[in-house]
Amino acid sequence: MKSCIAVVAFVLPLVRAQVPHWGPCPDPEVQPAFDLRQFMGRWFEIAKLPAQFEKGRCIETNFTLTTESSIRVVSSEILNGELRKIEGIGAIEDMKNPAKLGISYSYVLPYSPYWILSTDYVNVAVVYSCTDVLRLFHVDFAWILGRSRTLPDATIMEAREIFASNNIDIIRMVPSQQHNCDKTL
Ligand SMILES: *[C@@H]1O[C@H](CO)[C@@H](O)[C@H](O)[C@H]1NC(C)=O
């Protein structure tokens, strides 16, 4: 019991900035017959969960295929007037489930789940990442991505509905800032 408390004490500061929920991760439906190649290229962040303390704006990600099942990921944002980029790698972890990607922004960290719940490849993508912590609760991230910096309200509503119908709590999802984006990737 003592060691369990120690682990919780260690983990809690990491998750406090996020949105912990009791119980295990939900098990959402993902995009059927996901085509990694069509998903490549530039995506803009339209909305995200959770709200982050660092308020970068103009967040976008450029995905490039490196093999049939692995990708290079370059994300950028403007923070305090500076363009900042981070680079990561990603892969389909199980070819039977191609919409369940893993992405890592550091070679020392394991892949985090990056699941494409839905996409039409040309307008919008609905992305979810969830990690179980000690089977007691889970921590999750969710994004609505667009091929352009803005999406019609109806498209955003449909994307939110995809999360909701999969029991993903997006009450705290916030729109991303995509204005004054003079510096780009
Ligand atoms: C995305 O990355 C590819 C490969 O590095 C590059 O050729 C392309 O110009 C990039 N696109 C954008 C919008 O940065």
Automatic annotation (TrEMBL):
Location, primary (coarse class): secreted
One annotated GO molecular function: lipid binding
SUPFAM superfamilies: Lipocalins
GO BP: any one term: lipid metabolic process
InterPro entries associated with the record: ApoD_vertbrte, ApolipopD, Calycin, Lipocalin_ApoD, Lipocalin_CS, Lipocln_cytosolic_FA-bd_dom
GO CC terms: cytoplasm; extracellular region
Subcellular location: Secreted
Keyword annotations: Disulfide bond, Glycoprotein, Lipid-binding, Pyrrolidone carboxylic acid, Secreted, Signal, Transport
Residue ranges constituting the Lipocalin/cytosolic fatty-acid binding domain according to the UniProt record: 41-174
Coiled-coil residues: none
Residues making up the signal peptide according to the UniProt record: 1-17
Family note: Belongs to the calycin superfamily. Lipocalin family.
The name this protein goes by in its record: Apolipoprotein D
Organism: Betta splendens (Siamese fighting fish)
Lineage, opening ranks: Eukaryota, Metazoa, Chordata, Craniata, Vertebrata
